[in-house]
Protein 1
Amino acid sequence: TFRSIVSSYPGAALGLVDVSTARLVDTRVRNCISSRISGDASGGGIYARDVGDLRLEQCSFSGTATVQRGGGGYLLRTPVVVTDGDFSDGLASTVAGMFYLDQCPTAVFSRCTFENSRGTRAGAILALDVGMLTLEEIQFSGNRATVESGALHLERSAFAITDCTFTRNNSEQVPVVVADRGGAVFSVQSNGTVTNTSFADEKAIGQGGAWSQVGGDVEFLNCRFERCRAGVFGGGLQIELGGRIGLTECLILGCEARFGGGVAASFTGDIDLNHCTVVGGRGLSAGAAIYVDTDSAVGLRNSIACCAVSGDVAFCGSGTILVDHSNVWNDDSVNLRGEYGGECADPTGTNGNLRQDPQLCTADPDYGLQAGSPSAGAAADGSDQGWRPVGCAASTPLNVTDTSWGRIKSLYRTR
């Protein structure tokens, strides 16, 4: 245990320079601070430079801070593997509330939690020029940034994110600081994949409530975006200045922005949705599901975009939407705005495109299709449109058991 250490040098708890291998097991770092303003004093908990192989196993960092980079740790040119870690309440006056990864050849985080850390950029992790960042079964919750990247900042780095959850990073629950872009993640000129990952209750005051992207090519597979919000562009996801976002078998539910409640693409950035469902979005000015402008393009294939709470479903402002074998529909009893707005051409009746109530399983959190849905078998290959096939999940009855206050307290007594 390293506790309550204040240093004017890098790595208040531990500094590693030119070490061949280092392994920390079952190690706790508490309330350690690197306080030097001038010179290099990065890494409130640990500083590692040119370490051949660094491993952190079952480690816990809490209350670590720096006035520079990496409230929990600053790792430079160091391959690292972190497993079963718990990282909370980190603080960086500049960037990366917990870990700053700088030119690391590889960085692997598995089965870890990152909670309530803060920085001007990257509330939890910043990856700069990382050869390959792997995140597996990671929970990011309650992290926040004042500029961008509420939880994770990716810059010129390759990455693979699998089975992770992002929840309430820069959400209304922490209104004092809210990122301008990338409520959960901001990706800059980075290529990677995001698989089986969920984003819920994320917020940015500018763009990209859950995910904001500049350049790069990112593929999302079987991901969820729920109740995410942006003040201007892209309540769920937003891209600009080139690059591409691909979404396959993804759900975007109840997301909101002024332009593009679900997704927004600008300035030659492209988005492709294949077998996706975008439902219940709000476009406060335009595009409850999709907004595209300034020479960008959005492709909607084998998908469902429907049921906007406010705004037209799709809006084109000098951009293009290419719709193929998809169902785009607005419920006039809820929202009188049309399905397509701005310069969007209405493709209904061509290329297998529909404008009918898709009959979603609204009581099912997976929003599959009811039997008899017009979207059943309507995809280009004869499969069902949307992210889930026909079949509503049966509701699970709530099991309530009588108990007493004494019984509840006994569960928390020290044994």
Note: Confidence is low (pLDDT under 50) at residues 172-176.
Protein 2
Amino acid sequence: MSRVISAIAGLVLLIGGVSTPAVGAAADSPLRMATFVSDATLPLGDVLYSETLKTIEHPLLAKGVVLDDGQRRYVLCVVDWCTMRNATHVQFQTKIAAAAATSPESVAVQCVHQHTAPTFDASAEQLLRQQADPLTYRNLKSLDEITDRLAAAVRQALDRLQPFDTVGIGQAKVDRVAATRRVLTAEGRVLTRWSSCRDPALRAMPEGDIDPLLRTISLLAGDKPLVRMHYYATHPQTYYLNGRASYDFPGMARERLEQEEGVFQMYFTGCAGDVTVGKYNAGTPEDRAALAERLFAGMKASITATQTSPVARIAWRTEPVTLAPRSDGARDPEQNRHIVADPNAKTAERIQAASRLACQTRLREPIVLSLLELGPARVLHLPGEPLIAFQHFACGLQPDRFLAVAGYGLGTPGYICPQRAFAEGGYEPSASAVVPESESVLQAAIRRLLGSP
């Protein structure tokens, strides 16, 4: 694993501090694509989110598409996992890249972010095992098996590459799903409306600051759709922490649509760091089914609204960004090193300290953002849990152009908040691993990627 991390570090240094465009082949070179899917479910008995996996309600899937322009390949992959931090994300990205015969910076790996799914930090696990009194928490063998399975699925997809010449873009409003988690009172207090909320007063508060639009990108051969990619910003969970693996209501809507339409469907979560379904969810199976139904309706409406255009080129741009780690309070590195090494410390405290140390180490290196362009369709891939303000910012730079945003790539930064959130308070800034000044740094990188001065 350390060799893999070193390879990525070398790649980042090679990219340097400037945006790297990768423009596709000439217009007479046909574009090709192939989809793939792989089971990404951990074995029973492994640690899921923070509890032992006891039952599998739905298989957790890694779904993706390989794009080929005759000169280079690009891969979009979205996984029914909560979070991939540090070496975990590296392992997914590098194995997919090797299988697709491309480079890691040409691969975007995002999580849907369900909490009935793994949150996995292989770097923290390695750190725990290196102590004089070692601690084993995550099953690294399971990670190897899942990523090997995924790589095999990508390799097999290369045998199914088929031409596409048309791209479709559509969008539609989703009814009664997303609402802000950061409910501001008249006095300026921040109330937290969690993903599951049974407080009638909180549920009665307005939806607040969200992006109500679900955006869909379709790739077609003529008028035949080959894959649809949906993008919507909300935390994608209803109830969890009961040892159950599930792709929750977004997966339910996604797989139902795939079965009904007969077209491969992918679902990405946007900048949903402060957006949940708590206004419309009390944590019941009935609420989950209703949310899946309304999200499904939004997907269908977005498909109906799709407009198609010929496409003959792929553009892929990358931009390295350095988000400085916080070291205040409980994130003090010296304090966490002591906790990790202390055999008398509580197990949960050692695990948390190892994760903080691993994330601080990774944040010393740049994180590579990417932008895919296919004709009028553009997709921005972001790390961590960006708050909805970053989606508004990115889409507002060029409001007359279509842009879909996928968050939840490399999970290391945690919540990426606007600077004002740290003054307002609330859960998200308290859980952020990066400094308040990260807002302007990330915004500048997004501007460069989108070519917006």
Note: The longest strand covers residues 31-39.
Protein 3
Amino acid sequence: MRTSFALLALLALSCASTQPPASSNPSHDVEWPAFASDQGGTHYSSAADITRENVSKLQKVWTYHTGALEPVTDLNHKAAFEATPVMVDGTLYVITPFNKVIALDPATGAERWTYDAKIDRSYSYSEVTSRGVSVWRGGGETRIFFGTLDGRLIAIDGKTGKPCADFGRFGQIDLKRDVGTFWAPDYGVTSPPAVIGDLVVVGSSIGDNSNVDTGRGVVRAFDVKTGATRWSFDPLLPMADGARSGAANAWGPIAADVARGLVFVPTSSPSPDYFGGARLGDNRYANSVVALRASTGAVVWSFQTVHHDLWDYDNASPP
């Protein structure tokens, strides 16, 4: 049985030195500041040291064990390590499936600090994973944002790992408010929020096949400094008369186009997954990619990939 999840660092032998430096040098680092490299989700990196010629010669430099599966609980069989680490200002940030954030020296693997969201492992959460954290930088400050399995949005100081006390209530916001009725462990956050300007935009992961009237997949934008709600978008509004449904949530990563001031929200199927008799109307923003004005949350355009989905064909990622 696995006892921990681990991070591995590899070094290309053709680089100038085959030994890692004593610590990272931010002035020379190629950063990876977001889940998919940048807000737009391009997955592009300008790093060029690893090539087709030397990739087969990579050697392990360090290993860091997260200890995510300790203590042993029944939830461990659900846990999946899906996080993409991000690196800014010479620090590597990674999150475990149980929402423990770890800051490491990327050159040596030395631990700088950890922050544990203290998830209650007695619940049977619908999903047990986290795909990463998000970074905001401004005025000499770095804030790390992430969502939790139990439906919180948390902001911590990137340099110290301490909660940002001026954000929400002592550094966190309860996202379960104003999203309808649901069984609490079925509502959480598994993907990193999007950061655009002074906003952090977050969706949700919903266990959407347990009943018709499950939680609603509201997407919300909060002020990165105070946590004040700036806008919200409910993919199922307006609903047809007599319709009953929930979900249509954005559980995958949300992308942002900074130049155009847009966020792109990939939505899932309405609840329940495989029966559509209670969800009347076209549900036009479910199973869609929806472009929202980042400043207001207004819909700019949308494209529905599946009409009246009966197969759980969620949109899992942004364009």
Note: The chain has no helices and 22 strands.
Protein 4
Amino acid sequence: MLGLRKTIDAVGELAAAVKSGRRVVSISGLTSTVSKAFVLEQLRTATGRRFVIITDSNTSADSWQEDLAFFGGFADSPPSVVELPSFETDVYAGVSPHAETLERRALALWQMVHSNPDFVLLPPRALISRMITPTEIGSLGVFLKLGEDMSPELLIEGLESSGYVREDPIFNVGQFSVRGGIIDVWSPQREFPCRIEFFGETVDSIREFDPATQLSTGQVKSVEIAPMREFAVRPEHFREWADAAAREFADERSARTLKDRTDFALQGESFSGWEFLLPLTRPLGGTVFDYLSDVIFVIDEPSLIESGLKKFYDDSELHHRSLLESGDVGLEPAKLFQTPDELRKQLSGASLIELRALGMTAAATDEEFAVSESSTPDGSLLFLFPTAEKPPSFEIISRPNRKFDGRVADFASYAKSHTGDNIFAMQTKGMAERIEEILRDYEVTAEAGSIVIGTLSG
């Protein structure tokens, strides 16, 4: 159950501050992702603005996505939510990112280029990572329409370089097959794969089909094929890297570990961890800021984000130095991530909403303590979100839901005393029907639309 009326009133005042053009606004009192998501969705509806939410981890971003989708279901126009996960893989461990992460990131960047999502969810490492530019990610996918020309050979080459795997027959997302003038492909944003038939270089037919039976289920007029990874590579790119790496890492200590990689690269083949080494010859020219315009950044607990980033920057520098000293190879952090100065400059001109559960006073105290305890000249913080600006602050109190532990009478009494201020979120239709029966038995009227089927993170 969620108390809603007071929150909605408070959001009206918050929306007025956002509309007035205040660069930084602070919100205190919200202690759960559920309450934060409710407020942000209300704020989106009231202002028509788009929001980029910086949260502390991929797991937290998943919770935000679930809760925003739930509350967005009540809107006349449900919001679009895109989550750009970070690479949780240590870039200096010689290990490639998980295939699912590659797929999710590529699809998110593709969606950010071709649409204007209402919410973008970013963990800190996704915020600071260098990446290919919007123009480059846009060129990795393709839109096919009936009657238009497209070289099948170029399509196949593009699928291979952007991470699709050739398999016949296809049975999973990210696979494609070729039979004469017919190409089957399963793009990550589609529920079913498509069968594309060419007449010469003209798209003659596009049909969805069931991967279990391989039988067509219907015609479509067009298909959007998003990339499966944000790194487009061909065999010649690996060979170019092998030549450059031999010059860059010429130290005798690096010879063995380098050879383990160049043996594959010289054959035009990938090797474990190549995604974090190839920028030696194919520099990453973009950042997530290149994909975003006219947005408000929502910082979910700035002190948490700040301390996490500070630790990551320090650890990356230390790990890189240790790596080279041990005779391994790796690119300096600045080639893979924005520097603190670059990040600070990007954020200094951005519109921000800071979600500080304990408020600005507590944040300022924590900041003073961190600086006084630091042994480094510049303090222990990055000062990405300094408290000295003293932005307008709004308090919206959230509290944990009461737990009734099977005490149905107490539950019904509470619901009756808060009539009109509840949403009952049930995971299944059967559970929703059962709650309705319980309320009716205790003569509690559930307003229309107050019992809904859906899930929340907590």
Note: The two ends are 11 Å apart (CA to CA).
